[in-house]
Amino acid sequence: MFNFNPVWSMKTLILQRHAKAEKDGDDDLCRPLTPGGLSDVDFQGETLRQLELYPELILHSPAMRARQTAEIMAVKLELSQGYTVEDAELYNCDSSELVAIIRNLPDDADSVLIVGHNPAIEIVADTLALSGLGHFRPSEMVIMNFDIDEWRSISQRSCIDNKFIAKPE
Predict the structure, then answer these.
(1) Where are the alpha helices (DSSP H) in the chain?
(2) pLDDT above 70 (res 53)
(3) What whole-number distance in Å separates Cα of residue 35 and Cα of residue 147?
């Protein structure tokens, strides 16, 4: 059984791919979520709420679809506006850049949600998790616990417990 807040786990990282976005648009940064994407992220927020998992910080890329995903998650979890922070480096970052972002997270935040893009989200999740997770569809996420005091200590397969949360069918 997966334990979300074990005494022995110091940090919890949630990696989430943004929800489904409209395909049309000249500017990739400005593509909004589809109605189905809005519904899926609402479901994912409710899932974290039922698990009583409330991130202390939500980072998201500047893309509209990632920002909307993060904002809906924050609203669903009843987090104040200051919990959601845009990080320009999350847009088009590769997996090594995403790991660097994670390693530079503030250590006073024990639980962090990062809303980003494939392939970086799924590659990093695969690298850190206990075993391979495979492809992340829009809005899907993984919750990972780490027995560390500082985010810079994250390394390959350093996760001690993880749970993949699929999008609703």
Answers:
(1) 35-50, 64-76, 95-103, 120-128
(2) yes
(3) 38
Helix, coil or strand: residue 14: strand
Domains, the chain, in order of start with CATH, read: 11-20+30-165 (3.40.50.1240)
- Dig out the tokens for 136 from the structure: 């992340």
0.85 surpassed by pTM = yes
Task: Note whether 30 and 66 are within 8 A (CB).
Answer: no
- Tens-digit pLDDT profile for residues 76-124: 999 977 789 999 999 999 999 999 999 999 999 999 999 999 999 999 9
Q: Are 138 and 20 in contact (CB under 8 A)?
A: yes
Residue type, 11: K
Handedness of CA 117, 44, 70, 107 (dihedral sign): negative
Residues forming a β-bridge with 12 = 111, 145
